[in-house]
Design a protein that fits this description.
Elements lengths: L7 E7 L3 H13 L5 E4 L16 E2 L10 H20 L3 E2 L3 E5 L5 H13 L6 E4 H7 L8 E5 L3 E3 L1 H14 L3 E3 L4 E7 L4 E6 L5 E9 L5 H7 L7 E12 L10 E4 L11 E4 L5 E4 L3 E2 L13 H8 L2 H22 L1 H4 L15 E13 L10 E3 L6 E6 L4 H20 L3
Parallel strand pairs: 1-2, 1-12, 2-9, 5-14, 12-20
Antiparallel strand pairs: 3-8, 4-8, 5-7, 6-7, 10-11, 11-12, 13-16, 13-17, 13-18, 14-15, 15-16, 19-20
Family: Belongs to the L2HGDH family.
EC number: 1.1.99.2
Organism: Polysphondylium violaceum
Length: about 425
């Protein structure tokens, strides 16, 4: 490649979601002299996972003690509150109840409570039915709950935009509609060339960090990384209360999660505009950008059908998958997840809220990978963020600190 007349960036971030944007900001805060570029395939930042989510600032109750998710969620939630307060991004600490609705869930609820304490979430408490009803009077099906008063809500797209604005103020450039698909490395000059397939435009950079979300496996594999772990897209659909029923929920109400899956179950979530969203379910998506059950992409579907790990997972849990699919098609089926909490709820009280697609890494033996994964190809100046599931938005600033530390070690920044 001819680099004599090209601008050469010190570092390029592939992906303008919340994690990529936080990494860019944290790099520049540490070294404002870096010539940094953010590229994204879409025509706007935070177009997918970072803006299609529940908008909850989690506290770190659910995650395996000692895992990256546990440590970075606890730290990240505090970082997120501080960032929003310092930068005028609206948030609300509306609290959350993780609610048992039958006695069979009490042991799991107690384990979650102990896990939260082990993770350093020391502001939570176990509450009985009377206290539960004083917090959420409509949750008449609840018998006991974990109350997390400092769980909050925020618009993560607004956070991402603020992070990008910070980077631009510090000198970063942003290039949208740039689908980074072709990568070459000049080992003599130690320069990466990143080319956009559609426009044939290319950029040159000394170092690169990929934070490609739903396309993280493809981008990593195309840029000298391994094929595994692969990404399986799960679509989650939300209903919401019609405006006249929004008063029924004051904050966030979650079920006791199914220990077999890294999903938190269908829950009631307050949004920053006052809406109450209900969901999401978890349905296999046949389009990585498909927000309806009828969306199908041929390449994405072919990858799913040939994914050995997914076949293994589907064989073990096909009943769960069918149950989730039925809830996606029929609202009357969806509300069966809700009636244990609010027995009088009906489909007439609800309307469609929206949907999102979650990037979930899966192992070849068919297990959903729960923790964050970053890796580095040998002898290449690249870091790949391979798996960043929930609570990545909550944890984004803490994740960014960890990746920036990794960059200083791997890239030998001075």
């Amino acid at each position: 490649m001819n680099i004599t007349k090209q601008i050469i960036y010190d570092i390029t971030i592939v992906g303008a979601g919340i994690v990529g944007s936080a990494v860019a900001r944290n790099l520049l805060k540490r070294n404002p002299q870096l010539k940094l570029l953010i590229v994204d395939r879409e025509n706007e930042i935070a177009k997918h996972q970072s803006s299609h989510n529940s908008g909850v600032i989690h506290r770190g109750i659910y995650y395996q003690p000692g895992s990256k998710r546990a440590k970075l969620c606890v730290k990240g939630s505090m970082d997120m509150y501080h960032y929003c307060q310092e930068n005028g991004v609206y948030f609300e600490k509306c609290g959350k109840l993780i609610t048992a609705v039958n006695r069979n869930e009490l042991d799991q609820l107690e384990k979650l409570y102990q896990r939260g304490l082990a993770n350093g979430v020391n502001d939570i408490e176990l509450v009985d039915r009377d206290r539960l009803l004083s917090i959420e009077p409509s949750i008449v099906g609840g018998i006991k709950a974990i109350f997390s008063p400092n769980t909050g809500i925020v618009d993560f797209k607004q956070v991402t935009q603020s992070l990008v604005n910070d980077s631009v103020k510090m000198g970063a450039e942003v290039k949208l509609n740039f689908d980074a698909t072709n990568f070459n490395y000049n080992s003599r000059d130690k320069i990466l060339e990143v080319r956009c397939k559609e426009t044939n435009e290319s950029i040159h950079t000394k170092y690169m960090i990929t934070c490609a979300g739903i396309y993280s496996d493809r981008v990593a594999n195309a840029s000298f990384g391994e094929k595994e772990p692969s990404v399986v897209p799960f679509r989650g659909s939300f209903l919401k209360f019609k405006p006249q029923y929004s008063h029924l929920i004051k904050g966030n109400v979650y079920p006791v999660p199914n220990a077999n899956f890294p999903f938190l179950g269908v829950h009631f979530t307050k949004k920053t505009n006052g809406d109450i969203w209900i969901g999401p379910n978890a349905v296999l998506a046949f389009d990585r950008k498909g927000y309806k059950y009828s969306d199908v992409n041929l390449q994405d579907t072919k990858e799913l059908l040939t994914n050995k790990g997914l076949r293994s997972l589907a064989t073990r849990h096909w009943k769960y998958g069918m149950d989730q699919l039925m809830s996606d098609i029929f609202p009357s089926h969806y509300i069966k997840f809700l009636k244990p909490f609010i027995p009088d709820i009906t489909t007439d009280m609800l309307e469609y809220g929206g949907s999102g697609v979650r990037a979930q890494a899966i192992s070849q033996d068919g297990h959903l990978i729960e923790d964050f994964i970053y890796d580095t190809p040998l002898d290449k100046p690249i870091i790949h963020v391979r798996n960043c599931p929930s609570p990545a938005a909550t944890s984004s600033l803490a994740i960014a600190d960890e990746i920036v530390d990794m960059a200083y070690s791997h890239f030998n920044f001075h």
